[in-house]
Amino acid sequence: xxxxxxxxxxxxxxxxxxxxxxxxxxxxxxxxxxxxxxxxxxxxxxxxxxxxxxxxxxxxxxxxxxxxxxxxxxxxxxxxxxxxxxxxxxxxxxxxxxxxxxxxxxxxxxxxxxxxxxxxxxxxxxxxxxxxxxxxxxxxxxxxxxxxxxxxxxxxxxxxxxxxxxxxxxxxxxxxxxxxxxxxxxxxxxxxxxxxxxxxxxxxxxxxxxxxxxxxxxxxxxxxxxxxxxxxxxxxxxxxxxxxxxxxxxxxxxxxxxxxxxxxxxxxxxxxxxxxxxxxxxxxxxxxxxxxxxxxxxxxxxxxxxxxxxxxxxxx
Length: 316
What we know:
Blueprint: E1 2-5, H1 11-19, E2 23-25, H2 34-40, E3 43-48, H3 56-61, E4 67-70, H4 80-85, E5 89-92, H5 98-113, H6 116-126, H7 131-137, E6 148-152, H8 156-167, E7 171-175, E8 181-187, E9 193-199, H9 203-209, E10 212-215, H10 227-232, E11 237-241, H11 250-259, E12 262-267, H12 278-281, E13 286-288, H13 297-315
Parallel strand pairs: 1-2, 1-3, 3-4, 4-5, 6-7, 6-10, 10-11, 11-12, 12-13
Antiparallel strand pairs: 8-9
């Protein structure tokens, strides 16, 4: 049987699938050609990340499709219920990329509190002519230790982020409609660990209390953070979104950054992907990455092998 990994798959995933008797195709097929390619090549499994969309049109056009797989957590680029109604298995890898995303959250947090994103832009331009001026501009750093991190969505990635925050000596609070409380276990290199219980609170109280806010929620119909929510936050708050574009009102965010209400933002995802707004791209108070939360070698290895084992167990 043939597997089309249209957005790529790790070498370990390919080897595991080949060992299970599958042929893996890693040709990148344009969105509008996916259905034709699947049919012409008798593809049974389509694997995607976030680039390729598997909607009703592809599902209807490909009667031979047996599995649709998403290398990652969110499945908003797949018509999941419709696929299942047609007898197609839909799989994902919710546990594989949690640590990678959590580390990127902290990359953005560290960048924001020490102005690294802006310093890295300006040092090559002015480092030799305005060293003292830049030193003064970036002199008011903030320590993360002792501050309060508000985690919106305390699922797997939220918990991984909470563990890192606790390891840094931060206070962690959370808001989650579906998880009233969770025991978070922080494990150390020598086998020791500590466990703490995080009780979910209201979004409004989290926004009022947190020094820094990180979002870990699926795609939404509306904004989780808009003008009203920004208004009740602490002055000088830092906001990180490594979840999904469209959960923050970017126009309201830029206004809040310009006024100083928000100290910095860290964005890995954007409302208009893959063409973010120029007002976002040019804002010197925003640390930005191009949707790379799960893009580490370790995470991609875990994703590839986890997808392979699920496919083999279903079709093997």
